[in-house]
Amino acid sequence: MFIALTIMLGLALVLGAFLGYAALKFKVEGDPLIARIDAILPQTQCGQCGFPGCKPYATAIAEGRADINQCPPGGDAGVHLLADLMGMEYKPLNAENGAEKPKSVAFIDEEICIGCTLCIQACPVDAILGAAKHMHTIIASECTGCELCVAPCPVDCISMETVGETPDNWKWKYPMIPIKSMPITSLAIESAV
């Protein structure tokens, strides 16, 4: 019994050391610029930019294969952030890719839905719940508003509804003006005088 445990422990140590060495030797570094660009994009995975999702679009921007103004869901604010990050001049949103719209989510009229599952197949974020020949519904918290489920619906039971402003999704609409702070030591000296 002791010999078997010793052999297993020795084998585990040798394989662990080998895996640790292989992880260091064959480590693949990701491009941090792609990650920063992807963080700016709205993650709708809608394909309006001409790429299958936000990550391929971010990769194309970083490699210089795509322009920064092809994302309608990101809007002008997204183009400004991308221009600042890339050190480029701002370009207005490209009208060929679509127009900026307010955030919306899909809504399925469950009385009309025939359960064809075409909308489920079209949804890139799995925000539609249902089964074949049964009604479907939208998981609103997961829906990105990409509108990819609207076109395949054969009975036109899917509509897009604008998301109202709530405390959870409210954002500051005005430019942020940075406030320069003074060192604490100079504040203490000024208040003492």
What is this structure, in a nutshell?
With 193 residues, the protein is mostly helical.
Task: Describe the SSE topology.
Blueprint: H1 2-25, H2 32-40, H3 54-63, H4 75-86, E1 104-108, H5 118-122, E2 128-129, E3 137-138, E4 158-162, H6 184-192
Antiparallel strand pairs: 1-4, 2-3
Top keywords for this entry?
two-stranded antiparallel sheet; extended; Alpha-Beta Plaits; 193 residues; 6 helices; mainly alpha; 3-methyladenine DNA Glycosylase II, Chain A, domain 3
Describe the structure.
This protein is mostly helical and 193 residues long. Among the domains are: 32-97, 3-methyladenine DNA Glycosylase II, Chain A, domain 3 (Orthogonal Bundle), CATH 1.10.15; 102-163, Alpha-Beta Plaits, CATH 3.30.70. Helix content is 36%, strand content 7%. It is built from six helices and four strands. It has helices spanning 2-25, 32-40, 54-63, 75-86, 118-122, 184-192, and strands at residues 104-108, 128-129, 137-138, 158-162. The chain has a two-stranded antiparallel sheet. Strands 2-3 form a two-stranded antiparallel sheet. It is extended and about 70 Å long. It starts with a helix and ends with a helix.
